[in-house]
């Protein structure tokens, strides 16, 4: 069951977000939305949905720069560890891949 909910403004002063629901996950993306892509600084969080008690469990979180909706430039990637976000990578990303510490 896929479901998508979005509030999008192609306006310099308005933050945009996109929620994508896929069976057992929710993806939340916040940032500037331009020509069908997130560009510039923003965040993306992915959560697992537990049907019992309608609780969530984090999977991954990225805060940093985007290009064509992919992590690109300086950013931080987090994993969910023991009920909280824990930093995994802090540095430069290229087309969604971590390439190393910031220069």
Number of helices: 0
Write down the Rg. Answer: 14 Å
| Helix coverage percent | under 10%
Task: For the largest sheet, list the strands in their spatial order.
Answer: 1-2-3-4-5-6-7-8
The overall pLDDT average reads: 80
Structural class: mainly beta
Q: Would you count the extended β strands for me?
A: 8
- What fraction of the residues are assigned to beta strands by DSSP? over 45%
User: What is the chain-wise order of helices and strands?
Assistant: EEEEEEEE
What distance lies between the first and last C-alpha atoms, to the nearest angstrom? 43 Å
Largest sheet: 8 strands, antiparallel
Runs in which pLDDT lies below 50 for 5 or more consecutive residues are none
Would you kindly provide a brief summary of this structure?
The protein is an all-beta fold and 103 residues long. The protein has no helices and eight strands.
Task: Characterise this structure.
The protein is mainly beta and 103 residues long. It is 0% helix and 75% strand. It is built from no helices and 8 strands. It has strands at residues 2-7, 16-22, 25-34, 37-50, 55-67, 70-81, 84-94, 97-100. An 8-stranded antiparallel β-sheet has the order 1-2-3-4-5-6-7-8, with no helix packed on it. Strand 6 (70-81) and strand 7 (84-94) form a beta hairpin. The chain is flat.
